[in-house]
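User: My instructor asked us to take a sequence, write out its structure as tokens, and then describe one feature of it. I'm not sure where to start. Here is the sequence I was given:
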Amino acid sequence: MKKILIWTIIIIIFLVFLVYFTTRETEEDRAAKERYNNANAEGQKCVHVLNNGYYAHKSLTWKLDQCEVPK
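Assistant: Let's start with the prediction itself. The structure tokens for your sequence are:
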């Protein structure tokens, strides 16, 4: 019983660290979000259209570049 409790705690701690390190926002992510927020309405609309289509899996930076949003 004690082994099961220890292994459960170890697994929970491992999962907490895994979630923490995979959901961290990088500097590139912050810069892309700021670039999107500073874009005009036309640029934001373009990114929105790309995000709902075939290119939804592409990064925000790629979408901003395709929509010619200034850096």
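For the description part of your assignment, you could build on this observation: The chain has a mean pLDDT of 90. Try explaining in your own words what that tells you about the chain.
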